From TrEMBL:
NCBIfam families: PRK09355.1. This is Hydroxyethylthiazole kinase. It catalyses: 5-(2-hydroxyethyl)-4-methylthiazole + ATP = 4-methyl-5-(2-phosphooxyethyl)-thiazole + ADP + H(+). It comes from Paeniglutamicibacter gangotriensis Lz1y. The keyword Aminoacyl-tRNA synthetase does not apply. Its EC number is 2.7.1.50. The gene is thiM. Signal peptide: none annotated. Catalyzes the phosphorylation of the hydroxyl group of 4-methyl-5-beta-hydroxyethylthiazole (THZ). HAMAP family: Thz_kinase (MF_00228). Substrate binds at M54, G202.
Length: 272
Protein backbone atom coordinates (compact mmCIF):
# COMPACT_ATOMS: atom_id res chain seq x y z
CA UNK A 1 0.00 0.00 0.00
CA UNK A 2 1.33 3.42 -0.86
CA UNK A 3 2.32 5.51 2.15
CA UNK A 4 -0.14 8.29 3.08
CA UNK A 5 2.71 10.44 4.39
CA UNK A 6 5.29 11.81 1.96
CA UNK A 7 8.90 11.21 2.93
CA UNK A 8 11.01 14.37 3.21
CA UNK A 9 14.72 13.92 2.61
CA UNK A 10 17.17 16.56 3.71
CA UNK A 11 19.64 17.82 1.12
CA UNK A 12 23.34 16.93 1.31
CA UNK A 13 23.97 20.64 1.83
CA UNK A 14 21.81 20.69 4.98
CA UNK A 15 23.81 17.78 6.43
CA UNK A 16 27.10 19.48 5.57
CA UNK A 17 25.94 22.73 7.17
CA UNK A 18 24.96 20.88 10.35
CA UNK A 19 28.41 19.29 10.66
CA UNK A 20 30.08 22.62 9.88
CA UNK A 21 28.02 24.28 12.63
CA UNK A 22 28.98 21.56 15.10
CA UNK A 23 32.68 22.05 14.39
CA UNK A 24 32.30 25.83 14.68
CA UNK A 25 30.47 25.79 18.02
CA UNK A 26 31.89 22.79 19.95
CA UNK A 27 28.59 22.06 21.77
CA UNK A 28 28.79 21.21 25.47
CA UNK A 29 27.07 17.86 25.87
CA UNK A 30 26.01 16.67 29.32
CA UNK A 31 26.03 12.89 29.47
CA UNK A 32 24.25 10.76 32.06
CA UNK A 33 25.01 7.29 30.77
CA UNK A 34 25.87 3.76 31.72
CA UNK A 35 29.09 2.57 33.31
CA UNK A 36 29.99 0.39 30.30
CA UNK A 37 30.22 3.06 27.62
CA UNK A 38 31.16 6.27 29.43
CA UNK A 39 34.73 6.52 28.14
CA UNK A 40 33.86 5.50 24.58
CA UNK A 41 31.01 8.03 24.50
CA UNK A 42 33.27 10.86 25.65
CA UNK A 43 35.84 9.94 23.00
CA UNK A 44 33.18 9.79 20.26
CA UNK A 45 31.97 13.29 21.22
CA UNK A 46 35.50 14.69 21.26
CA UNK A 47 36.35 13.09 17.92
CA UNK A 48 33.24 14.52 16.28
CA UNK A 49 33.96 18.02 17.57
CA UNK A 50 31.81 18.33 20.71
CA UNK A 51 32.77 18.79 24.36
CA UNK A 52 31.56 16.00 26.69
CA UNK A 53 30.85 16.36 30.41
CA UNK A 54 29.69 13.32 32.38
CA UNK A 55 27.76 15.19 35.09
CA UNK A 56 25.45 12.63 36.73
CA UNK A 57 25.52 13.43 40.44
CA UNK A 58 22.37 14.68 42.22
CA UNK A 59 22.87 18.29 43.26
CA UNK A 60 25.07 18.97 40.21
CA UNK A 61 23.13 17.44 37.32
CA UNK A 62 20.27 19.99 37.32
CA UNK A 63 22.45 23.06 37.42
CA UNK A 64 24.58 21.74 34.61
CA UNK A 65 21.57 20.79 32.47
CA UNK A 66 20.48 24.42 32.54
CA UNK A 67 23.71 25.55 30.83
CA UNK A 68 24.56 22.53 28.63
CA UNK A 69 24.03 22.76 24.86
CA UNK A 70 22.41 19.32 24.81
CA UNK A 71 22.03 16.31 27.08
CA UNK A 72 21.87 12.50 26.89
CA UNK A 73 19.97 10.35 29.39
CA UNK A 74 20.90 6.69 28.83
CA UNK A 75 19.41 3.99 31.06
CA UNK A 76 22.00 1.23 30.57
CA UNK A 77 23.04 0.87 34.25
CA UNK A 78 20.45 3.01 36.08
CA UNK A 79 21.53 2.97 39.71
CA UNK A 80 19.34 4.82 42.22
CA UNK A 81 21.60 7.80 42.60
CA UNK A 82 21.91 8.18 38.85
CA UNK A 83 18.12 7.98 38.44
CA UNK A 84 17.77 10.82 40.95
CA UNK A 85 20.30 12.85 38.97
CA UNK A 86 18.46 12.07 35.73
CA UNK A 87 15.12 13.25 37.12
CA UNK A 88 16.76 16.46 38.37
CA UNK A 89 18.54 17.01 35.04
CA UNK A 90 15.42 16.43 32.95
CA UNK A 91 13.39 18.92 34.99
CA UNK A 92 16.14 21.52 34.70
CA UNK A 93 16.70 20.89 30.98
CA UNK A 94 12.99 21.30 30.28
CA UNK A 95 12.83 24.50 32.32
CA UNK A 96 15.89 25.95 30.54
CA UNK A 97 14.99 24.72 27.04
CA UNK A 98 18.02 22.42 26.81
CA UNK A 99 17.30 19.69 24.23
CA UNK A 100 17.78 16.13 25.48
CA UNK A 101 17.92 12.58 24.16
CA UNK A 102 16.44 9.54 25.93
CA UNK A 103 18.07 6.14 25.26
CA UNK A 104 15.93 3.46 26.99
CA UNK A 105 18.56 0.72 27.03
CA UNK A 106 17.22 -2.82 27.55
CA UNK A 107 13.68 -1.84 28.53
CA UNK A 108 11.14 -4.65 28.58
CA UNK A 109 11.51 -7.28 31.26
CA UNK A 110 13.72 -5.21 33.60
CA UNK A 111 11.21 -3.43 35.83
CA UNK A 112 13.10 -0.52 37.35
CA UNK A 113 14.44 0.89 34.10
CA UNK A 114 11.23 0.19 32.22
CA UNK A 115 9.05 2.11 34.69
CA UNK A 116 11.58 4.95 34.78
CA UNK A 117 11.83 5.04 30.98
CA UNK A 118 8.04 5.31 30.65
CA UNK A 119 8.09 8.31 33.02
CA UNK A 120 10.90 9.95 31.03
CA UNK A 121 9.04 9.23 27.77
CA UNK A 122 6.26 11.43 29.14
CA UNK A 123 8.65 14.18 30.28
CA UNK A 124 9.15 15.83 26.86
CA UNK A 125 12.40 14.33 25.50
CA UNK A 126 13.51 16.02 22.29
CA UNK A 127 14.69 12.72 20.77
CA UNK A 128 14.07 9.12 21.81
CA UNK A 129 16.81 6.88 20.40
CA UNK A 130 17.00 3.12 20.69
CA UNK A 131 17.08 -0.17 18.91
CA UNK A 132 13.90 -1.61 17.44
CA UNK A 133 12.93 -3.67 20.50
CA UNK A 134 13.45 -0.74 22.90
CA UNK A 135 11.34 1.61 20.77
CA UNK A 136 8.54 -0.96 20.58
CA UNK A 137 8.45 -1.21 24.40
CA UNK A 138 8.16 2.56 24.81
CA UNK A 139 5.36 2.53 22.23
CA UNK A 140 3.70 -0.25 24.28
CA UNK A 141 3.89 -2.47 21.21
CA UNK A 142 6.51 -5.04 22.27
CA UNK A 143 8.03 -6.92 25.19
CA UNK A 144 11.71 -6.06 24.66
CA UNK A 145 14.84 -7.60 23.22
CA UNK A 146 17.54 -9.91 24.56
CA UNK A 147 19.33 -7.82 27.16
CA UNK A 148 20.73 -4.76 25.37
CA UNK A 149 20.28 -6.37 21.93
CA UNK A 150 17.31 -6.01 19.62
CA UNK A 151 15.29 -9.04 18.59
CA UNK A 152 13.04 -7.01 16.29
CA UNK A 153 13.84 -5.43 12.93
CA UNK A 154 13.71 -1.72 12.18
CA UNK A 155 10.93 -2.34 9.64
CA UNK A 156 8.81 -4.11 12.24
CA UNK A 157 9.21 -1.13 14.59
CA UNK A 158 8.20 1.47 11.99
CA UNK A 159 4.56 1.88 13.07
CA UNK A 160 5.57 1.89 16.73
CA UNK A 161 8.15 4.62 16.05
CA UNK A 162 5.53 6.82 14.40
CA UNK A 163 3.02 6.24 17.21
CA UNK A 164 5.68 6.95 19.84
CA UNK A 165 6.68 10.20 18.13
CA UNK A 166 3.07 11.37 17.95
CA UNK A 167 2.30 10.55 21.61
CA UNK A 168 5.56 11.90 23.08
CA UNK A 169 6.23 14.87 20.80
CA UNK A 170 9.80 13.55 20.38
CA UNK A 171 11.69 12.67 17.25
CA UNK A 172 12.12 8.88 17.39
CA UNK A 173 15.27 7.22 15.99
CA UNK A 174 15.46 3.45 15.52
CA UNK A 175 18.90 1.98 14.85
CA UNK A 176 19.65 -1.14 12.82
CA UNK A 177 20.89 -2.11 9.38
CA UNK A 178 19.22 1.05 8.05
CA UNK A 179 18.23 3.60 10.70
CA UNK A 180 14.68 5.00 10.71
CA UNK A 181 14.10 8.50 12.10
CA UNK A 182 10.66 10.08 12.35
CA UNK A 183 8.84 13.00 13.92
CA UNK A 184 5.54 11.24 13.33
CA UNK A 185 4.91 13.06 10.06
CA UNK A 186 8.24 13.08 8.26
CA UNK A 187 10.27 9.85 8.11
CA UNK A 188 13.87 9.49 6.92
CA UNK A 189 16.00 6.36 6.54
CA UNK A 190 19.79 6.62 6.93
CA UNK A 191 21.52 3.83 5.03
CA UNK A 192 25.09 2.53 5.14
CA UNK A 193 27.16 2.33 8.29
CA UNK A 194 28.79 -0.86 9.48
CA UNK A 195 27.77 -4.01 11.28
CA UNK A 196 31.09 -3.66 13.14
CA UNK A 197 29.34 -1.02 15.27
CA UNK A 198 27.39 -3.85 16.91
CA UNK A 199 30.67 -5.49 18.00
CA UNK A 200 31.91 -2.45 19.92
CA UNK A 201 30.02 -1.77 23.14
CA UNK A 202 28.40 1.64 23.06
CA UNK A 203 27.78 1.68 19.32
CA UNK A 204 24.21 2.78 19.95
CA UNK A 205 24.81 4.62 23.22
CA UNK A 206 27.39 7.00 21.74
CA UNK A 207 25.07 7.64 18.78
CA UNK A 208 22.59 9.14 21.25
CA UNK A 209 25.31 11.49 22.50
CA UNK A 210 26.09 12.60 18.94
CA UNK A 211 22.41 13.35 18.38
CA UNK A 212 22.44 15.48 21.56
CA UNK A 213 25.38 17.44 20.16
CA UNK A 214 23.55 18.18 16.89
CA UNK A 215 20.34 19.18 18.69
CA UNK A 216 21.89 22.40 19.93
CA UNK A 217 22.54 23.61 16.36
CA UNK A 218 19.07 23.64 14.82
CA UNK A 219 15.45 23.95 15.89
CA UNK A 220 14.61 21.01 13.62
CA UNK A 221 15.20 17.97 15.83
CA UNK A 222 14.57 15.67 12.87
CA UNK A 223 17.43 17.29 10.92
CA UNK A 224 19.69 17.09 13.99
CA UNK A 225 19.01 13.38 14.47
CA UNK A 226 19.43 12.61 10.77
CA UNK A 227 22.71 14.56 10.64
CA UNK A 228 23.99 12.68 13.69
CA UNK A 229 23.12 9.30 12.22
CA UNK A 230 24.57 10.24 8.81
CA UNK A 231 27.92 11.29 10.35
CA UNK A 232 28.00 8.08 12.31
CA UNK A 233 27.31 5.93 9.24
CA UNK A 234 29.86 7.75 7.09
CA UNK A 235 32.59 7.36 9.72
CA UNK A 236 31.71 3.70 10.29
CA UNK A 237 32.03 2.94 6.58
CA UNK A 238 35.47 4.52 6.40
CA UNK A 239 36.58 2.67 9.51
CA UNK A 240 35.33 -0.70 8.31
CA UNK A 241 37.35 -0.33 5.10
CA UNK A 242 40.64 -0.32 7.02
CA UNK A 243 39.80 -2.36 10.16
CA UNK A 244 40.71 -5.99 10.74
CA UNK A 245 38.31 -6.53 13.67
CA UNK A 246 36.34 -4.75 16.40
CA UNK A 247 39.44 -3.39 18.16
CA UNK A 248 41.00 -1.71 15.17
CA UNK A 249 37.51 -0.67 14.00
CA UNK A 250 36.88 1.27 17.23
CA UNK A 251 40.15 3.17 16.82
CA UNK A 252 39.57 3.80 13.11
CA UNK A 253 36.00 4.92 13.83
CA UNK A 254 37.22 7.66 16.21
CA UNK A 255 39.78 8.76 13.62
CA UNK A 256 37.13 8.82 10.88
CA UNK A 257 34.71 10.88 13.00
CA UNK A 258 37.51 13.35 13.63
CA UNK A 259 38.57 13.72 9.99
CA UNK A 260 35.13 13.58 8.33
CA UNK A 261 34.57 16.89 6.53
CA UNK A 262 31.19 18.47 5.78
CA UNK A 263 31.84 17.94 2.05
CA UNK A 264 32.65 14.26 2.57
CA UNK A 265 29.50 13.84 4.64
CA UNK A 266 27.45 15.46 1.90
CA UNK A 267 28.87 13.13 -0.76
CA UNK A 268 28.66 9.94 1.38
CA UNK A 269 25.27 10.11 3.12
CA UNK A 270 22.52 7.94 1.65
CA UNK A 271 19.05 8.98 2.80
CA UNK A 272 15.61 7.88 1.66
N1 LIG B 1 23.38 -4.67 10.37
C1 LIG B 1 23.89 -3.43 10.47
N2 LIG B 1 24.52 -2.86 9.42
C2 LIG B 1 25.04 -1.62 9.50
N3 LIG B 1 24.96 -0.85 10.61
C3 LIG B 1 24.33 -1.36 11.69
C4 LIG B 1 23.77 -2.66 11.69
N4 LIG B 1 23.21 -2.89 12.91
C5 LIG B 1 23.41 -1.78 13.63
N5 LIG B 1 24.09 -0.84 12.91
C6 LIG B 1 24.51 0.47 13.35
O1 LIG B 1 25.09 0.33 14.62
C7 LIG B 1 24.82 1.47 15.45
C8 LIG B 1 24.24 0.99 16.76
O2 LIG B 1 22.97 0.44 16.51
P1 LIG B 1 22.36 -0.72 17.41
O3 LIG B 1 20.97 -0.98 16.88
O4 LIG B 1 23.29 -1.85 17.53
O5 LIG B 1 22.22 0.07 18.78
P2 LIG B 1 21.95 -0.45 20.24
O6 LIG B 1 21.36 -1.81 20.22
O7 LIG B 1 21.22 0.60 20.97
O8 LIG B 1 23.46 -0.50 20.77
P3 LIG B 1 24.08 -0.47 22.26
O9 LIG B 1 24.77 -1.77 22.41
O10 LIG B 1 25.01 0.70 22.30
O11 LIG B 1 22.95 -0.29 23.22
C9 LIG B 1 23.90 2.37 14.62
O12 LIG B 1 24.68 3.40 14.03
C10 LIG B 1 23.37 1.45 13.53
O13 LIG B 1 23.11 2.13 12.33
C1 LIG C 1 26.51 -4.16 27.69
C2 LIG C 1 25.69 -3.19 28.44
N1 LIG C 1 25.01 -3.55 29.57
C3 LIG C 1 24.31 -2.55 30.11
S1 LIG C 1 24.46 -1.08 29.25
C4 LIG C 1 25.51 -1.83 28.13
C5 LIG C 1 26.11 -1.07 27.00
C6 LIG C 1 25.44 -1.30 25.70
O1 LIG C 1 24.12 -0.94 25.66
MG1 LIG D 1 21.22 0.58 23.02
Amino acid sequence: MESMVPSIVFTPGELADALGALRASTPLVQVLTNAVVTNFTANVLLAAGASPAMVDVPGEAGGFAAVASGMLVNLGTPHGEQRAAMAEAVAAANAAGTPWVLDPVAVGSLGIRTNFALKLRDASPTVIRGNASEIMVLAEAGSGGRGVEATDTVDSASAAATALALRSGAVVAVSGEADLITDGTRTVHVHGGSKMLTLVTGGGCALGAICAAFLSLTDDALLAAVAGHACYSAAAERAEAIASGPGSFAVAFLDALHTLTPAELASTAVLS
